[in-house]
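Researcher: Here's a chain I'd like modeled. Treat it as a single chain, no partners, no ligands.
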Amino acid sequence: MNYLAQIANNSWMKIYLRILALIFTYSGLIHITNIIGLDQQPWLETPLTWQVGDIIYQNNMGLK
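Model: Modeled as a single isolated chain. Structure tokens:
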């Protein structure tokens, strides 16, 4: 466990984790805007696989 703490304290790892957090945040916001209907296409008119994907993604990200 101490090894993981040492890795997280590396400057390159901090930068990498921040970039990764920004990517996940942006992706989550895209899914939220799709569900809310702020996209060009209403969410209920999108294919069922897209709707399921949006819901699964939100559940996996802890945004229930």
